[in-house]
Please model this.
Amino acid sequence: MLTIGQKFPSFSKTAVVSIEKGKEFETLTSDYLVNDDNVWTVMFWWPKDFTFVCPTEIAEFNKNFTEFRDRDARLIGASTDSEFVHAAWRRDHDDLRDLKFPMLADTSKSLAEDLGILEPTEKIAYRATFIVDPQGIIRWVSVNDLSVGRNVKEVLRVLDGLQTDELCPCNWEKGQETLTV
Amino acid sequence: MNESTEIISEILTAIGVDTAYRTESLTLLEEGESRYLRDLKLNFNSTLTSEHLSNKECGLLGLSTAINNNNKPLTQFFTRYAEEQGANAADVAEAAGCTSLLAANNVFYRFRHFTQKEKYTQIPARIRMSLMMKPVTGKEFFELMSLAISAVNGCEMCVNAHEDSLIKLATTEERIFDAVRIASLVTAMGKVVF
Model:
């Protein structure tokens, strides 16, 4: 499994972005992971569409969408189901109809494979979460076994921690070079 | 009209405030026919231009000082002035943002500096400062505003740290000096017009 400090693998995948006819799909690529606009990426995976734990978790991420937006973080949900299964699930489930983030379809399982989060027997993704910085480097990974849901607040807490570098020169510490006071 | 009243009305006209406007302190200066009014007027006028700063930069420094000091008429005046001198909405917004963020940092880091306790430098500040990453007014000017505000707010280490970082960015001492000079004189005007 990929970990902190490693480059997020490149990919180009179809994602469901809407349930409106003709506007359902978009291609997401790893290109936008690296950007000058200081946008971070949070990608979270679940094992299978149309199961019980998943929609609760996905709805929870959706409820916190603005929290991610305010932190300049793009949220992407993903599983190894196809875009058509994603779209059907979204149409089918009350909590998923107005999702604000794309559902990525890793139908070939190549991205899950590259990330090393594929469960060996069923070949479905673990509940993995990745925080990727604007340079495309993985800065946080967390993975739960198939049956354990995630805590979205914890993801936000980690993101805050990663993003709040004390950039101000006021953050001058004892012993730091050449400040003569 | 005595001379004091005349100077006051010149000051108020320059700032774009009704000439009949009086604050308590302005009234005291007027009634005592204080000579200081002339100094005040000349000092304030000298904040609008500088050999080492563009007029737009003078305006933005005046604006950030006025905002820092919660001064409504001066905030309005310097917003207009900065815009007349070429500042766009993003520049003006950044002056406001920088001022607010620095107000937080001045309080917070001053506390760290005062106490000098290892423990407080180890706990992460958790203050978001993404504004500092890519300032629209430029890294150097953002530092200059930060320095000016830190000087007004009286944070010694912040002042030294920003001054140091400006020197490393090859800013001249004259330019730094003028920025702080503007901040001090806008603060002075704010004591009588607010």
